Structure formats: C-alpha cells, structure tokens
Amino acid sequence: MAPPPAVPEADHQDDDDDISEGTGVDLRVAVRRLKARNTAPGPDGLPGKAWVLASEALGPRLEGLLSACLERGQFPLRWKTGKLVLIRKPGRPADSPSAYRPVVLLDEVGKLFERVIANRLAEHLAGTGPDLAEHQFGFRKRRSTVDAIMRVRALTTGDAVARGGGCLGGVSRHRQRLQLHALELH
C-alpha cells in the first residue's frame, strides 16, 4: 500500500505560535513509544513495527502530513476507522455474547497522531495552563495508579482521621485513565 499523499499547505494567517514547530520531536517521541509495543495492525494492515522501521525514511514526509493536519485542525476519517475483532474469554460458553471481548484495531499512523496531540496538550496545560486539577492522575506525566492509591490512603488514615475529620474519596477509571476524586470533611 502506498503512503497517503501529502496534504497541501493550509492558507491560514494566524498570529498563534507556529503549530508545526516541534513536530519532529513529537513524532520521534511517539515512534519511540510505538517501539515498546507489539500491537496488531489496523485496517491498513501495517503493524507498528513497520512504522518504526520506516520512520527514518518517511519521517520528513510524515512530519509534513501531521503538521498539515494540526494546522487545519483535521484528523483524517480513515485514521478513525477501526476493525472490530472479538476475543473469546476463557471458560465462557461460545454461544453467549458475554463470552467475547470486543477490541477495535486502529491504524498505527492515527495512534501516532493521537500521541503527538496528547503530548502537546499535556505540555500546554502544564506550561501555559490552565493546568489540570491537582487530584487528577490520568493524562498526567509522572503520576500513576500507585500514586492515586497512596493519596486515597493518606486521606482516609493518619492526620484527617486523628483530627476527627473525615474524607470521602473515590477512584474512577475512564478510557484507561485513572482519576482520584476526594473531598475532605472537617
């Protein structure tokens, strides 16, 4: 399959920062994350390892494509199209719908673009603001599930309890992101 054609330059006259600046660095970071994963290919049939191997040769062209998408504010529809695969859960009857876990396989180039966008959003929110809530653990660098659990433990034991105060806490998971919701009661 031939690589997608380059998108012509957009005719924008914005005074905002240059969107394409840093796309190469963003792309290298996204490709480096792709190297660590062994995922099934999406509808285009190209596994992540193929993109990793081709990134050096296709890098400048891919950077141009992603920059044009960012400048235009477009996410190509083809990159959002997935292939549904049903994975059977062990120990369940084959004729039961609950015996299968649906997984949607997406094109790796779309995942690369998502990572570029996510990294830029996180950097913007942390640097320019408004920053994310202190109690949010998902979509945050250097925050983990363990950090969220330790925060809940700290709020439900120790000083808050010793002072006669209390706390109401909850941990939720949304789209593979963990968030802590806490309300200290005095």
Automatic annotation (TrEMBL):
Alphabetized InterPro entries for the sequence: DNA/RNA_pol_sf (IPR043502)
The organism's place on the tree of life at top rank: Eukaryota
Region (Disordered) residue spans: 1-22
Any one biological process term the GO annotation gives: DNA biosynthetic process
Protein name, UniProt field: Reverse transcriptase domain-containing protein
